[in-house]
Structures are given as structure tokens and as C-alpha cells.
Specification:
Elements lengths: L11 H28 L3 H6 L13 H9 L2 H32 L5 H11 L8 H11 L7 H29 L3 H9 L4 H12 L1 H16 L2 H7 L8 H6 L1 H5 L3 H36 L1
Helix pairs in contact: 1-14, 3-14, 4-7, 4-10, 5-7, 7-10, 7-11, 7-14, 8-9, 10-14
Length: 289
């Protein structure tokens, strides 16, 4: 507000930016809203009137009942959570160690290792899946009836694929931390591990939260890896189950809409609850690092 107490009018540039961002948000959210409202309609009504909001007699939960009766939704959720949580915790652990070492320690080959981390972000999983699959096949952890081994075979490529991003994000944030705090802890008798877990990690919570959220979501939504490693129905994660829905049940749009809704609702809840950490973790390291 100005000194006179009157609010300044937004500039023309800001107004154009707001209009553009609002239109972009509408085009992004509309397909999601369309899927959710059609999940509560009879499948015959979807074909004739797919744009009205289901109210009263038009609203039904039959699609969700059918999804739980015909599809192993809970089993797929369990497999997805096992894979995604494993990937998230392992990436946070090792990426944190690697970022701390690359920021605070000076050793021969440090720059080369950092360049390798950056290079790791340039190669998509599509370009490495064949050699990775052959390697895991030689270990005997793919094409097996063991659910535990199949889930591990799914998690390992995802851990490798997310590691570079996590290290880069954490490096940017750790660089912004004053080294005086770590030196004071060292003078007080703390060893390297105590300094890391009691000083660095608490101060780096926003960045770790960013890494955790993105890693979890990328793992949760990764259908490509699951197509290679999860062959049996009892091993399917939620995105693999959704990918096979059409071949299993045909073009039942009500069932498809309800299944998609069940898949995306947990992701939306996680994002809405933790979105402030995403912005804070990404911007703090970028501005200060």
C-alpha cells in the first residue's frame, strides 16, 4: 500500500500475466475436473451428457463399487506405496550424503563427480532400460513370481533415475547454509555424522521435503518401468493397473473415470498439503546457492 493508504493498481503487464496464468490453470484443471465428475455418473449418461455436474438421481457410486469389485485396487495401492516410499527414502538418504560431501569436502575428482551427476540428468530412463533390464535379469529379480523381488526390480531403476535431481537440489540448498554452525558443532565434539544429522538435515528440511515429494510422485506415476518389471497381476502397482484397464474391461468410461479418480486423489492430497515445501525448497537453493 502507498503512503496515502490507497492500494496501487496492478500494472498492465501484471494483469496480462494474471489473465494468461488463469487461462493456463483452467486448461490444466478442466480435464481433471471432467474425469472426477464423470466418475459419479452412470456410464450411459457419460456418452450422452458428459459435461453436467451429477446431482441427485444422476449421481451414483456404482463405478467405484465396480472398480473395487473387479480390480485389485487395494493390492495395487499397497504395491505402489511400497515402491514409492522405498524410492523416496533411499534417494533422500544417499542423495543427502552425496550432496553434503560434494559441498563441504575437497578431494581429487570432486568436479568430475559433480559433472557426472549433472550428466545423469540428461539421460532419460527410456535410453537405459534395456541394459538395466538385462542386468537385473542376470541377477534373477525380474520375470519372477516373487512380488518382493519384482517390486525391488521396479524401485532400483527409479532410485537411480531420481538420484541426480535430488543431489542437485540438495547441493543448491546446502551451499546456502552458513558453515559457521557446522564448525561450532565440530568444536563442541560432534563428529561428521552428528553434524550432518543434527545440524545440516534440520536446516535443510524444505529441500528434503521437495526431494521427497517429487521423488514419490515420479515413482508413483512411472508406468514405463512397471511395464517391464511387473508382469503378474498380483504384482501390479496402481498405474500399471490403470494402464491395463481398457484391455481388461473394455471401454467402460464410468469405470475408467472412477479408476483414474482413485489414482489421482492421493497425489492431489499430498501435493495440496505440501506444496509450500515444493516452492520453498526449489527457490531457496536456487537464489542463495
Amino acid at each position: 500500500m502507498s503512503k496515502s493508504g490507497k492500494r496501487k493498481k496492478p500494472s498492465i503487464g501484471k494483469m496480462i500475466a494474471y489473465v494468461f496464468l488463469s487461462l493456463w490453470a483452467i486448461t490444466t484443471l478442466y480435464p481433471l475436473v471432467w474425469v472426477v465428475i464423470n466418475a459419479f455418473k452412470d456410464r450411459r449418461l457419460i456418452l450422452t451428457d458428459s459435461f453436467t455436474i451429477p446431482v441427485g438421481a444422476k449421481a451414483t457410486l456404482d463405478n467405484f463399487r465396480l472398480a473395487f469389485n473387479k480390480l485389485n485396487i487395494l493390492g495395487a495401492y499397497k504395491n505402489s506405496l511400497i515402491i514409492s516410499c522405498t524410492v523416496m527414502f533411499v534417494v533422500m538418504l544417499f542423495a543427502g550424503f552425496a550432496a553434503f560431501a560434494l559441498v563441504r569436502y575437497h578431494f581429487r575428482g570432486k568436479q568430475f563427480l559433480y559433472n557426472l551427476v549433472i550428466a545423469g540428468m540428461m539421460f532419460p530412463i527410456f535410453s537405459t532400460i534395456i541394459p538395466v533390464f538385462r542386468m537385473m535379469n542376470s541377477w534373477g529379480i525380474v520375470n519372477t513370481e516373487s512380488t518382493a523381488l519384482s517390486l525391488m526390480a521396479t524401485a532400483l531403476p527409479q532410485i537411480a533415475g531420481n538420484m541426480s535431481f535430488a543431489i542437485v537440489v540438495l547441493i543448491g540448498y546446502i551451499k546456502s547454509l552458513p558453515i559457521d554452525l557446522e564448525e561450532a558443532a565440530y568444536i563442541e565434539g560432534c563428529n561428521v555424522y552428528k553434524i550432518y544429522f543434527k545440524v545440516v538435515v534440520p536446516l535443510t528440511k524444505p529441500s528434503f521435503a521437495t526431494v521427497a515429494i517429487f521423488t514419490f510422485l515420479w515413482s508413483y506415476n512411472d508406468l514405463f518401468t512397471q511395464m517391464f518389471t511387473l508382469r503378474l497381476k498380483n504384482q501390479w502397482a496402481i498405474t500399471r493397473l490403470l494402464g491395463e484397464l481398457t484391455s481388461m474391461e473394455g471401454t467402460n468410461y464410468g469405470l475408467m473415470a472412477s479408476a483414474v479418480t482413485l489414482v489421482i486423489i492421493p497425489v492431489l492430497i499430498i501435493y495440496l498439503c505440501l506444496q509450500k515445501y515444493i516452492v520453498k525448497g526449489l527457490t531457496a537453493g536456487a537464489l542463495k546457492g
